[in-house]
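> forwarded from #structure-qc
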């Protein structure tokens, strides 16, 4: 059984919480840096925590790791590319099997949003603990250089072939995984078309103000990062070039 407790974290709006999952004795992403939320999580988890597993190293996913390790003595598992400011007891490899005591889960290396990003697949049910590959609220931010669009699209395709239900880090479960992943892929390709159309603006910041002009409450620094990810994708395909921070068609 997959149990979930959303904990308050300093994450990217509109999300305000990060989902902490428990499957058997394994806890995924004890995320909150706030003492009151850490205590609430510990009460919810109770006894029997055997392992702490991370989907990736971003701060809104790892803020409660050391507190939970102190409370439980449980070892921390993460991918070998995860960069965290604490000791990792076991570095996970792609394809490794994780025995939770409530089913076996295959560890899938799914970079593109973050280096060392992992998803966890129950091959019997098609359930996937998906981290920040998708979201039930808001969208996924790609911040270069670790936010890499081509790699992210490859990871979406990998999940598309395997998953039935996605359990994201932010928001509710996505019950139709193939449809959700198709939507995410189509969204990225639409955004690439918008970047192509806005190239005359010259800089990522200026393009972002064109592309996201009608989006209420947008953070234009994050929007510019999205634009840079799409420009990088176009550059890799020989469609654009950059000179002194300005982009143009090649």
């Amino acid at each position: 059984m997959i149990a979930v407790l959303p904990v308050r974290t300093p994450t990217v709006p509109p999300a305000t919480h990060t989902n902490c999952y428990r499957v058997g004795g394994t806890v995924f992403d004890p995320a909150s840096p706030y003492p009151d939320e850490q205590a609430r999580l510990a009460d919810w988890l109770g006894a029997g925590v055997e392992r702490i597993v991370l989907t990736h190293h971003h701060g809104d996913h790892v803020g409660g790791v050391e507190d939970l390790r102190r409370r439980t003595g449980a070892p921390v598992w993460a991918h070998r590319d995860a960069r965290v400011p604490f000791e990792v007891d076991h570095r996970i490899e792609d394809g490794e099997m994780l025995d939770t005591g409530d089913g076996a889960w295959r560890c899938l290396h799914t970079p593109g949003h973050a280096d060392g990003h992992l998803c966890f697949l129950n091959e019997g049910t098609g359930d996937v603990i998906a981290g920040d590959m998708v979201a039930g609220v808001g969208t996924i931010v790609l911040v270069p250089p670790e936010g890499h669009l081509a790699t992210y699209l490859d990871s979406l395709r990998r999940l598309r072939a395997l998953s039935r239900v996605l359990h994201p880090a932010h928001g509710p479960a996505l019950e139709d995984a193939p449809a959700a992943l198709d939507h995410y892929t189509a969204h990225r390709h639409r955004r690439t078309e918008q970047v192509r159309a806005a190239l005359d603006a010259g800089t990522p910041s200026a393009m972002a103000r064109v592309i996201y002009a009608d989006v209420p409450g947008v953070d234009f620094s994050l929007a510019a990062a999205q634009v840079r990810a799409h420009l990088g994708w176009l550059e890799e395909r020989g469609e654009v070039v950059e000179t002194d921070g300005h982009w143009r068609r090649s």
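QC bot note: The chain has two domains: 2-178, 198-250. The first strand starts at residue 2 and ends at 8.
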